[in-house]
Amino acid sequence: MILMLLLIDGGIVTVERKGRLQVYTGDGKGKTTAMLGLAVRAACSGMRVYIGQFMKGQDYSELCLPERFPEITMKQFGTPDFILPGEKPSLQDIQLAEAGLTAVNNAMLGGDYDMVVADEICVSVHLGLLNEEQVLELAAARPATVEVVFTGRYATDGVIEVADLVTEMVSVKHYYDTEKLSARSGIEN
Questions:
Q1: Is position 33 within any domain?
Q2: Nearest-angstrom CA–CA distance, 19 and 48
Q3: Which residues neighbour 107 within 8 Å (Cβ) at sequence distance 6 or greater?
Q4: Who's near 143: CB < 8 A, 6+ residues apart?
Q5: 67-96 residue pLDDT tens
Q6: Alpha-carbon span 65 to 71, nearest angstrom
Q7: Structural domain span for residue 51
Q8: DSSP string of 13-53?
Q9: pTM as predicted
Q10: Helix, strand, or coil here: 117?
Q11: pLDDT (tens digit, 9 = 90+) per residue, 23-58?
Q12: Which H or E element spans position 138?
């Protein structure tokens, strides 16, 4: 639990920090990037951050964050393979998502972290790795002092309704569509 100190009329008042549920969704680029910026900002202020990445087993540039910011713990819960819309997820994909859900829940409830992130949890529901009820139960279990962040396309109406902040990234123009570029290290991965 992090406490904030406020100076009021020359005295110090201790106030308990209230966490919120933030959601970054939409079809535009930047959901994970926004979350990573938020995590770095939190770490720079002394907050302890847990990032659970659903559906990710690839080598992404952000995996070095724990080396550079000891306040950040990051775990991946996915295979190196992409799951395409319309494909039935493998049993391994489902098991990894469920392990991720358990790990994020434990991090959220364990008292060791001030911010807990479930990266790509929204798209995990859309692709059938998890169901909306599981994610809503996770949101409902959030301790009042923990900041929780969900990312991923296709946030459900239920998730949007219980969130305190929702940002929808909208794709207006993307060089993937115009130039057919591969993901670039340090920019997209």
A1: yes
A2: 13
A3: 50, 52, 73, 113, 116
A4: 19, 108, 109
A5: 999 999 999 999 999 898 888 999 999 999
A6: 9
A7: 18-170
A8: EEEEPPP-EEEEESSSS-HHHHHHHHHHHHHHTT--EEEEE
A9: 0.87
A10: strand
A11: 999 999 999 999 999 999 999 999 999 999 999 999
A12: helix 132-140
Task: Assess contact for 92 and 81: CB atoms under 8 A.
Answer: no
Beta strands 3-8 and 49-54, pairing class: unpaired
Domain count across the chain: 1
Q: Is residue 84 part of a domain?
A: yes
Angle of CA points 44, 49, 161, to nearest 5°:
115
- Residue corresponding to tokens 């306040």: 71
SS3 category, 95: helix
Residue 143 is encoded by which pair of tokens? Answer: 């301790």
184 within a domain of the structure (yes/no): no
The CATH number of the domain holding residue 33 is 3.40.50.300
CA dihedral sign, ordered 144, 147, 148, 153: positive
Tokens 């959030």 belong to residue: 142
Tell me whether residue 89 is in a domain.
yes
Q: How far apart are CA 82 and CA 90, in angstroms?
A: 11
